[in-house]
Amino acid sequence: MNKKLMAVAVAGALAAPGLAMAQAGTNEAVIYGRFNLGIDQWKATGATTNTATTGDYKSRIRVYDSGSRVGFRGTEDLGGGLRAVWVIETGVNVDSGTTNGQSGTANSSSGTWATRDSYGGLEGGWGRLTWGRQSIFWVSGVNAQSGANYIMQDVNSTGYLGRTGLGVARESNVMAYNSPTMGGFNFTLSYEPKSEGVQGGTNNAKTDAKVFGATARYFGVVNVQLDYATNQSASGSGPGGSTPKNTGLKASVGWPYAPGANIALLYINIKNDNVAAATSGFTDGDKIKQSAAIINWEHTFGQIHALAEYGRVGDASGCTASTGVASCTDTGASAYLVAGRYLFSKRTAGYLAYLHYANKANANWDFNGAGMSSGNGQPGAFLPVSSVGADPQSIALGVIHNF
Description:
The protein is mostly beta strands. The protein has a single domain (about 30-195, about 205-400), classed as Porin, CATH 2.40.160. It is built from 3 helices and 17 strands. It has helices at about 5-25, 145-150, 275-280, and strands spanning about 25-45, 55-65, 70-80, 80-90, 120-125, 125-135, 170-180, 185-195, 210-220, 225-230, 245-260, 260-275, 290-300, 305-315, 335-345, 350-360, 390-400. The protein is globular. The N and C termini lie far apart (about 50 Å).
């Protein structure tokens, strides 16, 4: 027999069992995505102090990208009510083609494969079990969608309150269980063992850092969502050999009083235990608490979709220092959003939005997500501690299209 023909025959024989198995189930895959692009005028002025290199961020015109992405997702029917599920979603900065956000620093949700929520797993009547890069605490579901799905940003409800932060968002190496929905109720449990890293340093071989998250949801006449998460660093890695731990609680209730309309109230509480002065601006070892409340409204008038939000962050508590930037004095802030969208179709909308933050003298609440702030500061604050008191604001004209 011709050697080439023999090779083809052998390869076909070896592949046949796998081919038969693949054909036994239904395998569906789709490509999807979004672009969200526009132009805005952004500034953050009124800082408590100004130097040659820190303080105010002067007004600038920006062409921006906010959360554009490309994704692939699919399922395979394995029989007996069991399915394989998978998602690979990657953020793309369509404005620049780089990995950087508006501040010029890296946007962690873009640039490489699977930078956004991406996972694989199994699901059935018992629920869904997945492994991969997944969000914990990050979003507020149907009760607040402006920044997640409608425009470029919103009043920050993701777990960062300016001077305090949970430090949990879209996390890598997560195992998550999602329950089936029964009587309008479901829940999600998430766990991230932060065991990956390099050896060396004071905490060599310390691998007990971890993140845990739990979300409960109820859908009915009112929609309720409760999020809880903890973010614990490695044992002994904090000031004086302490163990830093951040805890977050977020509760929201929304009333969808008409089609395309909703009013919701959100409450957020963040606690940072055993903070380090170098990254928090407070005093080593402080245990800081801070809370916020946000009201969110949306209503659709024909092809016009109106959006508004208002939020307040209270002064932090638990500071050792009684005055200055390391104290809890004047660490509160407020913010509001007004926006309108024109719905060209179910997939495409144009929008005009104005978002304004008003920070007290020692506060630095800011935009969050998608690298949309031009401030370049500490994780969770985005403006450096030396820029407390500055008031970020943006007036934006953009278009969002889902495909």
